[in-house]
Amino acid sequence: MVWREKLVKFLMFKLIAGPIARLKSSNIPILNGQHNHKHLLRSFHSSTKDKLDLSSIPQDKIRNFSIIAHVDHGKSTLADRLLETTGVISREGKNEQVLDKLQVERERGITVKAQTASLFYDYSGATYLLNLIDTPGHVDFHYEVSRSLAACQGVILLVDANQGVQAQTVANFFLAFEADLTIIPVLNKIDLKLARPDLVKKQIENLFDISSSDILKISAKNGIGIDDVLQSVIEKIAPPPGSMDKPLKMLLFDSWYDQHRGAIANILVKDGTVSKGDIVKSAHSGKSYQVQELGIMHPDPVVVPQFVALGQGWRLGFLGLLHMDVFNQRLEQEHNTSVVMTAPNVPYKVKIIGTKNIKSYQGEEITILNPCQLPNASIIAEIEEPLVLGTIITPDEYLSRIIKLCLERRGEQVDQSYIDDTRIMFKVILPLNEIIVDFFDELKSFTSGYGSFDYEEHGYRKSDLVKINILLNNKDVEELTTIAHRSKARKMAQSMCLKLKDSIPRQLFEIAVQASVGNKIIARETIKPYRKDVTAKLYGGDVTRKTKLLKKQAEGKKKMRKIGKVEVPKDTFINILKRI
Description:
The chain is an alpha+beta fold. 26% of the residues lie in helices and 28% in strands. Strands 3-4-2-5-6-7 form a six-stranded mixed beta sheet, with helices on both faces. Strands 12, 13, 14, 15, 16 and 17 form a six-stranded antiparallel beta sheet that branches. β6, α6 and β7 form a beta-alpha-beta unit. The longest helix has 21 residues, at 543-563. Residues 1-52 and 301-313 have low confidence and may be disordered.
């Protein structure tokens, strides 16, 4: 049976844009025609089941699932054991973070990009194809999780038996719950001396209404209970829906760039069939592509993640400081590219007054993504800022400090409840602008790492906001322009000016660092120039000789100040917004 006659749910294929585009044929076998699974597995360093033909696996023997959890709860370790148990990788040697292929992931010990692997597992006399997605756990990479779940029918909800339920555990559970996915709760690290399996089971039961008898107990590090997890995936998660008789319909959920083979896409085939040579069309862009290769994903150490080429003026959004640092580090390590990270911004809704102004802005309400584009205050009726509903889980001993932090960030408490004897789940409404820079870092700092945080969109609210402009020697630095609440504007401006004073190198001329709201200067710092002692060569004589030299030096510095260029170090743009 040829490959196009099978509905393989996870595929890897190479796309070529345009009808005349060509690529040199590679040595990777093409997965169509009569090429069988034996060659496929050998090429992708896959399973030991090299006699298996994928055409023998019916659709009801396919399972698509993901591992979701809070950061450091053992997702990557569980993925390693699943790969070992199914024969994808050898049990010999030390397998750690096999699916974490990026250098930054191995250096930091965290997953920052979702990775896919196809596993083959024999159960009850049949062979099953299990398509696994290992997802990140940090809140900054929340979108990776939601995107991955769109390609699954079930999830493994992994919880640390020592740390218990944390913020991302709650957030990921509701992502899966709202997507109507089957949820398999798994308790990890039960072999630790400080493990509290009974207490954590109670947390799961109270928060998620899951019976404790349905919770699996494993140790991913020692390989305890791994077969139970695989069998639960087969028994509880439904096979993917879809029909081969319908027109081709696919979901593109991931992609990356290979230096030798070009763009490679991970797709979920929902309906129909696909094979080499087919022309597929993007429903979003309308562009057509030719499928050059097909395959299933196995761990491949030469895969290079894809990035969008950055040029002058591109504005990219990050979900937190860690997300930004990882992005920057990957660009430098993998592409030898240095970029300037500017201050983060959020979208604001601005209502305009005046018929001419409304006509000029093509509407009474506009959305501002760049603070520099905020209209003059005289034509603004009101400004609305985006809100988030934050969930904080922490030991109760830190509650008072958390409440203080939230109040400082203009937060409003909406609910709090105990999830066990010592831990509280705290819900608060916060302005998005108050949390995007360092809220999570500060929370983790004073809770000694025990506090966890997650948030979701919560609409907009009218607020008294102003635009803060930063000037260096009376020249506006647009990259440092930001929007703040009026009650915090002066304090924030003073902090920004002080940090700029410490960050910008001294020059041969004086640098005035100023912050303004409208036409009013609300903060100023001065960076003193280097000074040469022009009077050192004088040995007595009339005082006018000394005065003449100092006056000449002052005139030269005044001229330099007019034409001199002040360079702002690239790290400054983010550092000035971090609170001390």
